[in-house]
Amino acid sequence: MKKLKLISFYSLMSATLILNGCGKDGVGLNIFSVEDDKQLGLQTKGQIEADPAQFPILDPSTHAEAYAYIYKLRDDILNAGQVTHKDDFNWEVKIIKNDDVQNAFCTPGGYIYVYTGLIKYLDNKSSLAGVMGHEMAHADKRHSTTQLTKQYGVQTMLDVVLGKNQGLLSQIGSQLVTLQFSRTDESQADEYSVKYLCPSKYHADGAANFFQKIIDQGSATPPAFLSTHPNPDNRVKNIQKFASEGACSATIDESENTTDYARFKSLL
Prior knowledge:
This protein is mainly alpha-helical. It has helices spanning about 10-20, 35-50, 65-80, 115-120, 125-140, 145-150, 155-160, 165-175, 185-195, 205-215, 230-245, 255-265; strands spanning about 95, 105, 110-115. The protein has a domain at about 10-180 and about 255-265. It has twelve helices and three strands. It has a three-stranded mixed beta sheet with strand order 1-3-2. The radius of gyration is 18 Å and the shape is globular. The two termini are about 35 Å apart.
């Protein structure tokens, strides 16, 4: 991997002093640049796709119809006009074949991975759009690299972005797949999932449907997507509140939302 680029030392110190540890999104200081996020994401993509035993990714060439469906959904989210880094990040989507995992994640730089277990568990297209919007928000709001800065400290991350600790860089790439976000990060991703979907045709509170289904079934082992913080019940209420406050109104035809989605699931 080529050396990560960084803003100048003086710019970093000025940002630290002026912001007093608070990034532009209000979730903490982030020593990484947008370009660094892209490079970290590219490295993580390489590590994921070099491990087919753990991440059995469906081949886009042999599952072209399924990928066309999920890419169209992604494009609908991006083209709604609310994603800050729409043109900065790659926003590549890959489907991981594992029906036992109800999860999705998005690396820095916008590499999105969705498990077949999650797709098959959801009941409609708006729910998948809500979950994807949530994961895309983690990348768009740059939560991963903010958490890394907080976890390892400014000096250690400064060494990494200057290319002085390549061993840690490889470790970080693996860690990004399972990185735990803060309560603030999760709440913000829920909120921005609604904001991304509100101008689109989808039900803006789509992500709440997933949480509610888990709650209704009383699962003793909720999927990784359900962070222990904030409480799932509160997340449903907050997502629905965001949608209500935004006066969001879905225009998607219900046959597309449910019938077409069922056909998409059958492709997997």
